[in-house]
Amino acid sequence: MLLMRYALWRCGRGVLPGTVCRYLEAMKERPDGSLPLDSVRMVVFDTETTGFDLKKDGVISIGAVALNGLSIDVSDSFEVLVRQDRVGRSEAVTVHGLLKKDIARGVGEIEAAGAFLEYVGSSILVAQHASFDIAMLNRILWDAYRIRLFNGVVDTASLAKRLEKGPYYNLAHKVGEYRLDHLLERYGIRLHDRHTAAGDAYLTAQLLQRLIAKGRTSGIETAGRLLMQ
């Protein structure tokens, strides 16, 4: 990857901070596609944001939990509150249950993104409708450091569709059929702590476990096969 090589070159010149450089070094050892899934660390994450406009809205929290050996490891988790000034003027304004005064106590976006890089390392990233969360984080990383996330990414909504409808399914489906709430219900996962970054990450991690179990019947046994979406 040309962009990654250039970023590593900038690290060698002392241009980028240590958090970024340690992440880039870790990415040199990213999981080989032939590795069995039970030997790969997967980080299931979620972002809560002020809205859905990638240019105007910002991240207010990031939550994540890792799967190690295909087990959810709550001791290997991450959560950060991000300071934002764009959520409204009143102290009573709430976003995902957080008051403006709570959000004001968070860390800056760049600091939050850097801490997330340290936590993630070379792990496979997993999220529900992952493209939005990845894009929000990439905007922060690009504006600050001219880099992006280089990890392999699994979208649980796409994985569920692939397993249920087949790899070439491209027909219109029912509205909301692959929303997180509907998938959780379909796979027998009790909703708890919904619409918080950490809560949604934990729920999505449970969904991932069930999808991986289902995927084994169709030969999804390695990192490479999981990432084929």
**Rough outline:** globular
Which structural class best describes the helix and strand composition? Answer: alpha/beta
Percent strand equals 15-25%
The overall pLDDT, averaged over residues, is 89
Number of helices: 9
The biggest beta sheet is recorded as: 5 strands, mixed
Rg calculated over all Cα atoms: 18 Å
- Contiguous uncertain segments of 5+ residues: 89-95
Q: Which strand order spans the largest sheet, edge to edge or round the barrel?
A: 3-2-1-6-7
Please provide a written account of the structure.
With 229 residues, the protein is an alpha/beta fold. 41% of the residues lie in helices and 17% in strands. It contains nine helices and seven strands; from the N terminus they run H-H-E-E-E-E-E-H-H-E-H-E-H-H-H-H. The chain has helices at 2-12, 18-27, 100-103, 109-120, 130-145, 156-165, 180-186, 197-215, 223-226; strands at residues 42-49, 59-68, 71-81, 94-95, 98-99, 124-127, 153-155. A five-stranded mixed beta sheet has the order 3-2-1-6-7, with helices on both faces. Strands 4-5 form a two-stranded antiparallel ribbon. Helix 5 (130-145) links the parallel strand 6 (124-127) and strand 7 (153-155). Helix 2 (18-27) packs parallel to helix 4 and helix 6 runs parallel beside helix 8 (197-215). The longest helix has 19 residues, at 197-215. The protein is globular. The two termini are 20 Å apart. Residues 89-95 have low confidence and may be disordered.
